[in-house]
UniProtKB/TrEMBL annotation:
Signal peptide stretch: none
Domain of life: Eukaryota
Organism classification: Eukaryota, Viridiplantae, Streptophyta, Embryophyta, Tracheophyta
Name by which UniProt lists this protein: Methyltransferase
Documented EC number(s): 2.1.1.-
Keyword annotations from UniProtKB, A to Z: Glycoprotein, Golgi apparatus, Membrane, Methyltransferase, Signal-anchor, Transferase, Transmembrane, Transmembrane helix
Major localization class: membrane
Keyword Transferase assigned: yes
Matching InterPro entries: Put_SAM_MeTrfase (IPR004159), SAM-dependent_MTases_sf (IPR029063)
Gene Ontology CC: endosome; Golgi membrane; trans-Golgi network
Length: 614
């Protein structure tokens, strides 16, 4: 016999179920609102970090519990692979500019000084050690003038450049007097001479490129004038010049003008500079000057000081035949005319040219011999060969300022960049740009609660490994720090041009390879969505080992990514000498994006470490 169902009991059970579901929804809504209000886990983390002291502002006992279903948020309890320290001979190892590997490549056109990365089977699977006695660099601005000897123990430059006053060894520090071959009265006096021609002081000139920078004193002394210079020099006989620059707290990378295009977007720099940089500007049909023209903004300036400028007076002092110097200058003048650059000044050993603001300015010039580059994208430069051709202006209208009117800095930091306003960056509009700025101001405020010292000057050299539109760097902008904005070559490469239009600096890079810098050159590394981006591209271990190489002892890392990705990354970090914590998004535990914060432990070579040759 069938059982008769009691309809009243059924209705009662349904009502109870609905009540429970509604109650749970209300509970989680209130919990989420509580997190967002600043009185939840995020703020308790900030309070405890403040109590833990300045050197390690990371929670020791954060109990992260995933708030997501499935296996993505479940941490793997299996043992992490432990990476041993590398042999001490790798203390200053630069994988893609390795001296021994370089010598197997042709010397013609500086090919051997370009990037040559190791194949997969030769990549080191160990931790680069710091030298004995390594200490945290001095805070800026003291770091501009003093570097601890133990951090870069190389005295060769103090001998080779003694007369030129680049660097002096005093006790346990190197001192940088601000001198140089072309700076006999010091870098400040040299920059004063530039400022008499170029509008450096009013924010019009903000981004600069220093080719063959030495120890980057030009960039170091431009800083107080609110100009930020991207400096580069090869890893060559002048031992550790780029390393010294970064120890001083000055933006720099290892690089050379050889056969490959510079890793910067077109129309990026307000000013480019060469002071005895030894680049043969007139060679290869003017190819190097044409590459400078590509990265120089319309209306930008090119400064050349030293040979061959004013050769008639100096050829004996330079110990070079006057015929050779005369021919060198003739070629430079010829290429400058081809590029429609106007010489605006020549005084002593310094000459300054200005790039025209548009192609209409060239009507009176005989540039019929110019060969224009045929590439559809002037920003597609990663491992692309340089050519002897002129990059055409972005806008074919001859009467338009092709630079796009930029506000003086710092106003340009948040003004809508011309590339965005003109629709040149796919996927971004004025509205999405403005929204991106709001999001990053919010994110950075959250970081400041997590790491109280983030903008105090403790972290001078900062890197954003996946910079997007530069919102992180813009929100952090301060005279106490600078950010190397890296745009991965597999991301939207056109955002790097936007970053430069904001008055910030950056570079293209593929994170499947080593970065063009020395070990221990960054104080803080930030990466948003980086591991998600490279999920199927290369090994996470290699990326983390590279981060460890370039991060200073006691430096910090902030990763923002999806929870499943960060759980995998955190497991790998267990094999590094990092202290790491995983925490919720600032909007609460229901957001699948999480934040991982880590601090690299202090350790140096020889501390009873078993080492690995690989």
């Amino acid at each position: 016999m069938a059982t008769k169902i009691n309809s009243g009991d059924s209705r009662t059970r349904s009502s109870v179920s609905i009540f429970i579901v509604v109650g749970l929804c209300c509970f989680f809504y209130i919990l989420g609102a509580w997190q967002r209000s600043g009185f939840g886990k995020g703020d308790s983390i900030a309070v405890e970090m403040t109590k833990n002291g300045a050197d390690c502002n990371i929670l020791r006992n954060l109990n992260f519990e995933t708030h997501h279903s499935g296996q993505a948020g479940v941490e793997d309890d299996s043992a992490s692979k432990v990476f041993k320290p590398c042999h001490p001979r790798y203390t200053d190892y630069t994988p893609c500019q390795d001296q021994r590997r370089a010598m197997t490549f042709p010397r013609e056109n500086m090919i051997y000084r370009e990037r040559h990365c190791p194949p997969e089977n030769e990549k080191l699977q160990c931790l680069i050690p710091a030298p004995k006695g390594y200490v945290t660099p001095f805070p800026w601005p003291k770091s501009r003038d003093y570097v601890p000897y133990a951090n870069a123990p190389y005295k060769s430059l103090t001998v080779e450049k003694a007369i030129q006053n680049w660097i002096q060894y005093e006790g346990n520090v190197f001192r940088f007097p601000g001198g140089g071959t072309q700076f006999p009265q010091g870098a400040d006096a040299y920059i004063d001479q530039l400022a008499s021609v170029i509008p450096i002081e009013n924010g019009t000139v903000r981004t600069a490129l220093d080719t063959g920078c030495g120890v980057a004193s030009w960039g170091a002394y431009l800083w107080k004038r609110n100009v930020i210079a991207m400096s580069f020099a090869p890893r060559d006989s002048h031992e550790a010049q780029v390393q010294f620059a970064l120890e001083r707290g000055v933006p720099a990378v290892i690089g050379v003008l050889g056969t490959i295009k510079m890793p910067y977007p077109s129309s990026a720099f307000d000013m480019a500079h060469c002071s005895r940089c030894l680049i043969p500007w007139g060679a290869n049909d003017g190819m190097y000057m044409m590459e400078v023209d590509r990265v120089l903004r319309p209306g930008g300036y090119w400064v050349l000081s030293g040979p061959p400028i004013n050769w008639k007076v100096n050829y004996k002092a330079w110990q070079r035949p006057k015929e050779e110097l005369a021919e060198e200058q003739r070629k430079i003048e010829e290429v400058a005319k081809l590029l429609c650059w106007e010489k605006v000044s020549e005084k002593g050993e310094m000459a300054i040219w200005q790039k025209r603001v548009n192609s209409g300015s060239c009507r009176t010039q005989d540039n019929s011999q110019a060969t224009f580059c045929k590439t559809a994208d002037a920003d597609d430069v990663w491992y692309k060969k340089m050519e002897s051709c002129v990059t055409p202006y972005a806008n074919s209208n001859e009467d338009v300022d092709n630079g796009g009117k930029l506000q003086p800095f710092p106003d340009r930091l948040y003004a809508v960049p011309p590339r965005i306003a003109n629709g040149f960056v796919s996927g971004f509009s004025v509205d999405t740009y403005l929204e991106d700025n709001k999001i990053w101001k919010k994110h950075v405020n959250s970081y400041k609660r997590i790491i109280k010292i983030i903008d105090t000057g403790r972290y001078r050299n900062i890197m954003d490994m996946n910079a997007g539109l530069g919102g992180f760097a813009a929100a952090l902008e301060s005279p106490k720090l600078w950010v190397m904005n890296v745009v991965p070559t597999i991301a939207n490469k056109h955002t790097l041009g936007v970053i430069y239009e904001r008055g910030l600096i950056g570079i293209y890079h593929d994170w499947c390879e080593a970065f063009s810098t020395y070990p221990r050159t960054y104080d803080l590394i930030h990466a948003n969505g980086l591991f998600r981006l490279y999920k199927d591209k290369c090994n996470f271990e290699d990326i983390l080992l590279e981060m460890d190489r370039i991060l200073r002892p006691e430096g910090a890392v902030i990763l923002r990514d999806e929870v499943d990705v960060l759980v995998k990354v955190k497991k790998l970090i267990g094999g590094l000498r990092w202290d790491a914590k995983l925490m919720d998004h600032e909007d609460g535990p229901l957001v699948p994006e999480k934040i991982l914060v880590a601090v690299k432990q202090y350790w140096v070579t020889g501390e009873n470490n078993s080492t690995s040759s690989r």
